[in-house]
Amino acid sequence: MKVLVIGGGAREHALCRSLSQDPAVTELHCAPGNAGIAQVATVHPVDQLDGAQVAALAGRLGAALVVVGPEAPLVAGVADAVRAVGVPVFGPSAAAAQLEGSKAFAKDVMAAAGVPTARSYVCTTAAEAAEALDAFGAPYVVKDDGLAAGKGVVVTSDREEALAHAAACERVVIEEYLDGPEVSLFAITDGTTVVPLQPAQDFKRALDGDEGPNTGGMGAYSPLPWAPAGLVEEVLETVLQPTVDELRRRGTEFSGLLYAGLALTSRGTRVIEFNARFGDPETQVVLARLRTPLAGVLLASANGTLDQLEPLRWDEGAAVTVVVASEGYPAAPRTGDPIEGLAEAEADGTAFVLHAGTRTDEDGRVLSAGGRVLSVTATGSDLAEARERAYAAVDRISLKGGQHRTDIALKAATA
Ligand code: AMP
């Protein structure tokens, strides 16, 4: 099977790594890819937001499956364009990807499906925003309605800051604050059947101790030893299946990856957000533990045959990933710096380095090319061992001004 992956971050590197290890995959291509992906796949300089270009590439390559990684191409209709030329695609249509592309749409679907989530108001004026903030009280949660790469949400007790964020966005969702630990649960679906993956937790804030600004994600781990037994089944029953059923009922069938961001609050499990694609960096740890070859799972979603899929097999151990970000991330990331120690980080075979924002220069040196630069991942018999291995690998890498959190999976590993 020839497979084409769309995207160029660490999530796509993780997808490509797993696909490259699947004996069913005879050729692996990625567009646009990055310096790390180029080591396991043939990369193509294609605009990932241009459905016509992606569909043409898939046709030229004779791809049997196209896997769309990031949200922006999905919302731009790239999966639709590929489907239109008859190539199976893993990823929802633009209409279904509105589940991520519009927080207001997601809230509407959840209300119709009876899915537990934070109470919320959609606001377009300063007066509406002020009224909604006062209705819920502090801490305030203000979300840009549209796509914002994980950075459109402000959680603050400062009413002025909350109002300022609302004013800076065209349309916002203001909602009640959810306390309790967060869980990311991914599910593969073909629009009818839903197959949950293993839960993971990510770390959204830039600095240790969950301080600093929100980011795209600074690290992740799986499994969650502290999570209640039966969580996956509960979320399947109360969140994932009803959402997939509601979207099918509306005629906007959702196939691909449904990502539920959950808060385990004192009053029960609530959805914080949906995403329409694999989460980054949780994918790095979830796929590190998946034993079932990946291509067949993704193809079953694309072909609508998930009901025939064998139960997924998982590594009983743990996985941890630590994101190495560039200086100034997330506000003003500095790029173009050489990265050293990549081979050394992988030398003892206990960790692997997934590339996010990297590129290769004329001399073959790997340079930073984005805010999140690397996702250093390790597995182990438990979280403590996976953590130790991941951080040992991080320590072997040098990037001028590079930053990473030192507390990824720390609490879970020592609890
Ligand atoms: P989102 O982009 O919706 O995932 O939000 C980013 C982060 O903001 C989440 O991971 C949470 O940490 C936080 N957040 C979002 N919504 C809420 C909420 N209703 N209550 C508390 N924290 C929230």
Which helices and strands occur, and which strands form pairs?
Layout lengths: L1 E6 L2 H11 L6 E6 L9 E2 L7 H11 L3 E4 L2 H5 L2 H7 L4 E2 L7 H4 L1 H11 L6 E4 L2 H11 L3 E5 L8 E4 L2 H10 L3 E4 L6 E8 L4 E3 L4 E2 L2 E3 L3 E4 L4 E4 L8 H19 L6 E10 L2 E8 L6 H8 L4 H10 L14 E8 L13 E2 L1 H5 L4 E5 L2 E3 L5 E3 L3 E9 L2 H13 L2 E2 L10 H5 L1
Parallel strand pairs: 1-2, 1-4, 2-3, 4-5
Antiparallel strand pairs: 6-9, 7-8, 7-9, 10-11, 10-16, 12-15, 13-14, 15-18, 16-17, 18-23, 19-24, 20-23, 21-22
Q: How would you describe the overall organization of this protein?
A:
With 415 residues, the protein is α+β, with helices and mostly antiparallel strands. It has helices at residues 10-20, 51-61, 71-75, 78-84, 98-101, 103-113, 126-136, 159-168, 231-249, 282-289, 294-303, 342-346, 383-395, 410-414, and strands at 2-7, 27-32, 42-43, 65-68, 89-90, 120-123, 140-144, 153-156, 172-175, 182-189, 194-196, 201-202, 205-207, 211-214, 219-222, 256-265, 268-275, 318-325, 339-340, 351-355, 358-360, 366-368, 372-380, 398-399. The longest helix is centred in the middle third of the chain and has 19 residues, at 231-249.
